[in-house]
Amino acid sequence: MTFTEKDLIIPQDKLKAGTTHWQSPSNIAIIKYWGKHGVQLPRNPSMSFTLQNALTETKLSYKPKEEPTAGIELDFLFEDAPNEAFRSKLVTYLDSLLPFYPFLEQLSLKIQTVNSFPHSAGIASSASSMSALALCLCSIEDDFFGTLGDDTMFDRKASFLARLGSGSAARSIFGGAAVWGQTDLVAGSSDEYAVSIEDQLHPIFKSLHDDILIVSSEEKAVSSRAGHRLMDKNPYAPTRYAQAHERLSALLPALKNGDIEKFGEIAENEALTLHGLMMTSNPSYLLMEPKTIAMIQAIRIYRKEQNVPVYFTLDAGPNVHLLYPEEYISDVRGFVHSELANLLDEGTYIPDFVGEGPEEV
Ligand code: 2P0
Fold first, then answer.
1. How many Å lie between the centroid of ligand 1 and the Cα of residue 316?
2. Mode of pairing for the β-strands spanning 73-78 and 18-31
3. Top-level CATH class of 12-202?
């Protein structure tokens, strides 16, 4: 499916103004997407949980352009203030969609976006922001052309458009958990968009917690975009891509059976593999910080000594995601306050858990 089958141009007498408004969450990958090719196509399938609290809310207003002009006309406010750097990235993204969405050239657009988490918290916002915007775009398509009335089609198209903005955003369209990238293990999976695997989750994973322990909120030295590019010449890349398939094939049964130990083993291995790939890139780089490692050691000791199933994963940055089943919340929070508080940047952690996915506002 390429989503180019219809010529989406609005007839002159049907042009009108309107607004669409979505909130969409971030996600945390367990099997990591790291390495891409072509137009935002993944080198391996990835799996993530969709979060509940870390959200972007995006309002997209549109009206007919006063004068027909070529290209995208966009006004942009981030947290109520103009932001030229973000605006220019969005113009590039929307321009890249013109082959699918020629009608965007007929409209004058205004995007207003806010995040539920502090911009400076060091939490990647590309998954939540690009998925929220993609959902708004699909609402406009459906409003003008009535082409996405079917929920599966709507979500699939939103995931496809989100992916073109940021790969990991493809997975945020679905509540619970999603897989992005073609694999024989998941029916209907595709490199072009993510699919839901919510119905393949044991209840223990539907309410899994993810407390995001903030080690540093500074902007990272190497962007994910640059990190993906470095995979092209990483000598371990072919083995890594094969490993991601193997790990997914071990993870899916664990998710279904509620095997938290197996899940945790894979999650931690994936996190360290991701950072190992950064260290073995050329030039090599390190996004973990001493406090990241101190937290990892403390988590492993606590788990062993107290027999509490709490595991970590890492995103492309120094912050630690603490994953654990709902029933252990008071044990784990006690551990965070007593053993990890002095490692947290300004004492900050962001409590989150597996969520239900985007919502139209
Ligand atoms: C993931 N990450 O699977 C991996 C693991 C971070 C660590 O995808 O270039 O912002 O926009 O497609 O999605 C972060 O990279 O990259 C990412 P682009 P993205 O979530």
1. 8
2. unpaired
3. alpha beta
Spacing, Cα 167 to ligand 1 middle (Å):
6
Cα end-to-end distance, the chain, whole Å: 29
Given a contact cutoff of 8 angstroms between Cβ atoms, the answer to whether 169 and 40 are in contact is no
Q: What radius of gyration do the chain's Cα atoms show?
A: 21
Which two structure tokens, joined as six digits, stand for 130?
A: 């690009």
The string over 295-314, giving b where at least 16 C-beta atoms fall within 10 Å of a residue's C-beta and e elsewhere, is bbebbeebbeeeebbbbbbb
Closest residue (by CA) to atom 4 of ligand 1?
33
Distance, CA of 269 to CA of 191 (rounded, Å): 23
Give the model confidence (pLDDT) of 340-358 as tens digits. Answer: 999 998 888 999 999 999 9
Distance of CA 163 to the CA centre of its chain: 9
Structure tokens at 79: 């947290």
Q: Which atom of ligand 1 is nearest to the CA of 165?
A: 11
Show the ligand 1 pocket: residues with CB < 6 angstroms.
29, 32-34, 40, 46, 124, 126, 166-168, 224-225, 228, 274, 315-316
Residue 338 DSSP label: I
Check for a shared fold between 12-202 and 207-350. no
* Span 80-105, pLDDT tens digits: 999 999 999 999 999 999 998 999 99
Between the CA of 194 and the centroid of ligand 1 the distance, in Å, is: 14
Detail the DSSP E strand segments found in 13-162: 18-31, 36-37, 41-42, 46-64, 73-78, 81-82, 107-115
pLDDT: is 156 or 217 the higher one?
Answer: 156
- CATH architecture type of domain 207-350: 2-Layer Sandwich (3.30)
pLDDT in tens, 45-82: 999 999 999 999 999 999 999 998 999 999 999 999 99
Domain ranges within the chain, ordered by starting residue: 12-202, 207-350
Q: What does the pLDDT read at residue 244?
A: 98
Give the distance (Å) from ligand 1 centre to CA of residue 9.
Answer: 32
